[in-house]
């Protein structure tokens, strides 16, 4: 028996391109996108692993990995910087001529079976790197054992009018999954997959190998592996989750989830001592809020200089807001410089962007504007 044996290994899929996030993912993978004034999206599943007692995490990277790999480092912020397990970045690699990028979510795990096997785990937890939520995976593991399941899939009730956007689980009264429908046009229920899968490894390994040899497969868990396991009469169960969970796959959903954090009644609270969200610290000087400033319902991170007015604003580290400027419903990413007499409403400004004096950019909540250093401010001001 290997001395590195782990009961459960987590595999975090973090190679998403995130095309629907537009400028936010122009130079970085979706899981590396800044979120919540201090964090990146991937900090949430990583912190969930740490808080759940899972100390071995493989992070599967692919698209624009530089910012993500720099952020991950050796896993120190999440307590994953140890030799036996810890955090390991797993980019695609060419084992022989003709190697390629990961072909799908299942192929990504298949290509890294050797990483998993060195820990001889009983269970493998598959996570998405681009969702905002707090979840105790240890409770899910206990549920998986009690149900004597081969696969446990975490599900959440979504509004019926959105159900066709998700993989939908049809279950019996005991939450045993009887049918899986990938983004059905006419869903039979509203139990949506959260992209959190817990597998008994001995079963998953067999199906990964079978899927890899299927030339017609898209090598995807939702489209191929899960349906194949159902067809083979494996025991699949749904794990109901009722707390906060958001898929921030669009600019609109990203902005809405960010504004949720500023709601005093939000179910997702970042200041809970018993379930911290960890991240790399920018090590900036203290924030400075001048006499001329007026701040309400906002996050202001380290190194910020605020001379203007903020309402429902999220400022990452190193942001400056000039005198007589008004910033509302807006997210300012690291090192953004906002000039004087600027008005920003319902806007997202990417890292390092400078907003000239007297700029006015406002948008409706249904049409959030994203700005970067290549934005033509004169034209944009005329349109708003």
Automatic annotation (TrEMBL):
Residues 291-366 form the Glucose-1-phosphate adenylyltransferase/Bifunctional protein GlmU-like C-terminal hexapeptide domain. Its EC number is 2.7.7.27. Signal peptide: none annotated. Pfam families: Hexapep_GlmU, NTP_transferase. It catalyses: alpha-D-glucose 1-phosphate + ATP + H(+) = ADP-alpha-D-glucose + diphosphate. Homotetramer. This is Glucose-1-phosphate adenylyltransferase.
């Amino acid at each position: 028996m290997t001395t590195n044996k782990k009961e459960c290994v987590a595999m975090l899929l973090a190679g998403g391109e995130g095309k629907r996030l537009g400028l936010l993912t122009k130079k970085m993978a979706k899981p590396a996108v800044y979120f919540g004034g201090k964090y990146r999206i991937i900090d949430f599943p990583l912190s969930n692993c740490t808080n759940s007692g899972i100390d071995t995490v493989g992070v599967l990277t692919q698209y624009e990995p530089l910012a993500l790999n720099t952020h991950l480092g050796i896993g120190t912020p999440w307590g994953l910087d140890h030799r036996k397990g810890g955090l390991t970045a797993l980019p695609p690699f060419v084992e022989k001529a003709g190697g390629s990028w990961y072909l799908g979510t299942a192929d990504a795990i298949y290509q890294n079976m050797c990483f998993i096997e060195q820990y001889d785990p009983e269970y493998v937890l598959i996570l998405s790197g681009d969702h905002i939520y707090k979840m105790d995976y240890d409770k899910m593991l206990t549920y998986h054992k009690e149900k004597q399941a081969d696969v446990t899939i975490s599900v959440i009730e979504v509004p019926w009018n959105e159900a066709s956007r998700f993989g939908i689980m049809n279950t019996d009264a005991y939450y045993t999954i009887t049918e899986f429908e990938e983004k059905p046009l006419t869903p039979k229920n509203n139990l949506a997959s959260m992209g959190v899968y817990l597998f008994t490894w001995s079963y998953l390994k067999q199906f990964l190998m079978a899927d890899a040899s299927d030339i017609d497969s898209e090598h995807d868990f939702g489209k191929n592996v899960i349906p194949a396991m159902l067809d083979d009469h494996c025991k699949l169960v749904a794990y109901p989750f009722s707390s906060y969970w958001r898929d921030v796959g669009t600019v609109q959903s990203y902005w809405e989830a960010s504004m949720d954090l500023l709601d005093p009644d939000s179910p997702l609270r970042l200041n809970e001592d018993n379930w911290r969200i960890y991240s790399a610290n920018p090590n900036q000087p203290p924030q400075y809020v001048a006499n001329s400033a007026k701040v309400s319902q906002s996050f202001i991170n380290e190194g910020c200089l605020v001379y203007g007015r903020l309402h429902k604003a999220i400022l990452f580290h190193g942001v400056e807001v000039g005198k007589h400027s008004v910033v509302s419903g807006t997210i300012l990413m690291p090192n953004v410089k906002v000039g004087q007499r600027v008005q920003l409403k319902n806007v997202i400004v990417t890292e390092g962007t400078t907003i000239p004096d007297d700029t006015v950019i406002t948008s409706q909540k249904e049409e959030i504007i994203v700005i970067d250093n290549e934005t033509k401010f004169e034209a944009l001001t005329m349109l708003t």
